[in-house]
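queue> pop job 88
queue> type: inverse folding (structure -> sequence)
queue> payload:
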């Protein structure tokens, strides 16, 4: 079965958010004299985006989440995050798929002044609620990357994509690709 992309409200919202992030980046002016992120410190963030399931009977959905980082150095941070994803289904009788995701990640920053690309990978606990009811906990892995753009010394907007590899529930897969945009504050 070929899983074809369909525009949904979530994917349209993600496209609008990407365009707005690019507009802010292009309109914000000259680079800073200092390098970001700082050597040591913590940051907190919030994000939202779209979830694109690998399972054919699930529809594109949305996710929202929060995260906290500790920078061990300019290039390495540890991240803890919680997010919630909600997807519709084509399963007989309706129902929805939801997953609470508790993730621990290592984040590698690749330099830059205002624009800081990064890669992230880690493991997590996924609380999965399939359309048939009930819920189950699963351990999984995730990997991906993104970019942060610093608006000032303490505030950055971010965009990221993560592949989530999770065993499913009820003979359905739980893996997905999730794209999100957000904001982060550095203390």
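queue> result:
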């Amino acid at each position: 079965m070929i899983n074809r992309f369909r525009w949904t409200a979530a994917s349209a919202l993600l496209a609008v958010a990407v365009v707005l992030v690019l507009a802010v980046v292009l309109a914000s002016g000259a680079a800073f004299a200092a390098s970001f992120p700082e050597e040591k410190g913590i940051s907190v963030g919030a994000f939202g985006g779209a979830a694109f399931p690998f399972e054919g009977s699930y529809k594109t959905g949305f996710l929202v989440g929060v995260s906290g980082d500790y920078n061990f150095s300019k290039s390495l941070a540890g991240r803890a995050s919680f997010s919630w994803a909600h997807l519709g289904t084509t399963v007989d009788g309706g129902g929805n798929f939801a997953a609470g995701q508790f993730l621990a990640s290592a984040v590698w920053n690749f330099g830059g002044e205002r624009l800081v690309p990064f890669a992230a990978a880690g493991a997590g606990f996924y609380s999965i609620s399939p359309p048939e009811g009930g819920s189950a906990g699963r351990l999984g892995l995730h990997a991906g990357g993104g970019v942060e753009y610093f608006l000032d010394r303490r505030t950055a907007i971010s965009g990221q994509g993560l592949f989530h590899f999770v065993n499913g529930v009820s003979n359905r897969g739980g893996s997905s690709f999730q794209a999100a945009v957000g904001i982060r504050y550095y203390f």
